[in-house]
């Protein structure tokens, strides 16, 4: 029907064994967003948004090869949607400026990506892992904890995460008493925490080592009324029941060690049942997405992040819309963009920087580093089941505790840190 194509390059992790295969849930959401954007009459009139993509398998090397393939084969691409995995994104987003490409990632959480010197054209609808840190600090203040212990997996994302948490704790006069890290086997690190009689413990590690950490915690009695664990909240809900031959604890033993622990994770869906820019509520979005998934939501990696991919496409469409209007003032057309067109890249960048809307993943807006701002959801586990304790609001720097939520502490009250016990004596 005579529409001109505006083509996006897309990179999604689909087959990735090693890392995050979130493209399985995120690609269908992006595809659905293209359909919805292209039927929106007041958006990109006379144009059609098109996506040419491939599977990075969550491998940086594979990501580079498919990027070259996408860029060095027609048609001309105008922007990059993705990558999903942080390891692929940190490799590609640094090089993207060579093609004057703006990068819009829907799945990368690495704090390293918040560096405008290295990633000059980078934006993401997925919040940085650091966004949980102000929530931790408010939790420490709420419970009066001023001595904190940290155990982390030796992964880049957690190293950056801990550095940012230490920075915030120093400002808040909260002491990091011990900091343990482990590569594969956490037993020594857990035993060291026990030796130093740790009470308030922040644990930053992926799901697989998490089972090992809590098996060791169980064996060392590092749980119960005198200890509280604060860990990552985006593991699968039944993560501690997954059979793992290298973990010699039963799910029941893990559940005992996990009783009462707290989790933080960035909210990746709009909780208010508002009508978003797409005309749908978040519930409508998931209802429309389900038939497009191969398996059930539980079997779909990236299902939780799918609203981020859907909103990433809307952010691109809105930025393109604004860019077309701005370029027209200079007698230029977006469809004439080439990889040497710095002027258009600059207009696209400014348009993306100022893009903000109500999305299915919540309010979408970007910091000057291209970072997504989002609330942090705080949960507590009781009898193996997570319940929402409250939400950390980054704009007001406060935790809104859920009215009427009954906190469950093994000792009836939340544990004290080392100083509070002395006061108590
Ligand atoms: C919350 C999670 C699972 C964090 O890792 C992201 C992937 C990545 O950062 O590599 C996807 N979303």
| Distance N to C terminus | 80 Å
Number of helices: 12
User: Care to count the β-strands?
Assistant: 15
Estimated structural class: alpha/beta
Shape: elongated
Bound compounds, each kind once, are: [(2S)-5,5-dimethylmorpholin-2-yl]acetic acid
Mean pLDDT: 95
Q: What strand order characterises the main sheet?
A: 7-6-8-9-10-13-14-15
Q: How does the major sheet shape up?
A: 8 strands, mixed
Strand content: 15-25%
Fraction of residues in helix: 25-40%
Write the element-wise H/E pattern from the N-terminal end onward: EHEHEHEEHEHEHEHEHEHHHEEEEEH
Q: What's the alpha carbon Rg, rounded to whole Å?
A: 23 Å
Contiguous runs where pLDDT drops below 50 for at least 5 residues: none
Name the features.
alpha/beta, elongated, binds [(2S)-5,5-dimethylmorpholin-2-yl]acetic acid, 425 residues, 12 helices, 20% strand, 5-stranded parallel β-sheet, 34% helix
């Amino acid at each position: 029907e005579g529409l001109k194509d505006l083509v996006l390059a897309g990179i999604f992790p689909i087959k990735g064994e090693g890392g995050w295969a979130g493209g399985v849930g995120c690609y269908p959401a992006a595809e659905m967003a293209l359909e919805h954007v292209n039927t929106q009459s007041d958006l990109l009139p006379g144009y059609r948004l098109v996506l040419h993509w491939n599977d990075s398998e969550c491998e940086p090397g594979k990501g580079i090869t498919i990027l070259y393939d996408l860029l060095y084969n027609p048609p001309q691409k105008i922007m990059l949607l993705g990558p999903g995995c942080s390891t692929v994104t940190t490799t590609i987003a640094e090089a993207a400026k060579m093609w004057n490409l703006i990068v819009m990632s829907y799945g990368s959480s690495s704090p390293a990506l918040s560096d405008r010197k290295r990633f000059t054209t980078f934006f993401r609808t997925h919040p940085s892992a650091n966004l949980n840190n102000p929530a931790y600090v408010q939790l420490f203040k709420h419970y009066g904890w001023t001595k904190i212990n940290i155990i982390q997996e030796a992964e880049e994302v957690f190293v950056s995460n801990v550095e940012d948490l230490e920075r915030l704790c120093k400002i808040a006069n909260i002491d990091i008493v011990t900091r343990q890290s482990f590569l594969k086997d956490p037993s020594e690190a857990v035993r060291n925490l026990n030796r130093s009689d740790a009470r308030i413990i922040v644990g930053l590690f992926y799901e697989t080592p998490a089972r090992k950490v809590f098996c060791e915690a169980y064996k060392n009695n590092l749980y119960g009324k005198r200890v509280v664990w604060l860990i990552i909240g985006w593991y699968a809900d039944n993560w501690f029941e997954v059979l793992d031959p290298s973990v010699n604890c039963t799910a029941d033993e893990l559940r005992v060690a996990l009783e009462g622990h707290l989790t933080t994770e960035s909210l990746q869906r709009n909780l208010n049942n508002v009508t978003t820019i797409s005309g749908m509520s978040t519930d409508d979005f998931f209802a429309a997405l389900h038939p497009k998934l191969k398996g059930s939501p539980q079997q779909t990696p990236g299902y939780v992040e799918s609203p981020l991919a859907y909103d990433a496409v809307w952010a691109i469409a809105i930025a393109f819309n604004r860019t077309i209007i701005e370029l027209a003032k200079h007698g230029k057309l977006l469809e004439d963009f080439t990889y040497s067109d710095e002027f258009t890249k600059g207009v696209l960048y400014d348009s993306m920087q100022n893009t903000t809307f109500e999305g299915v993943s919540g309010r979408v807006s970007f910091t000057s580093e291209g970072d997504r701002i989002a609330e942090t959801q705080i949960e507590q586990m009781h009898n193996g089941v997570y319940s929402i304790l409250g939400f950390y609001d980054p704009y007001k720097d406060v935790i809104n505790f859920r009215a009427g939520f009954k906190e469950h502490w093994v000792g009836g009250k939340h544990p004290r840190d080392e100083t509070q016990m002395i006061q108590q004596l």
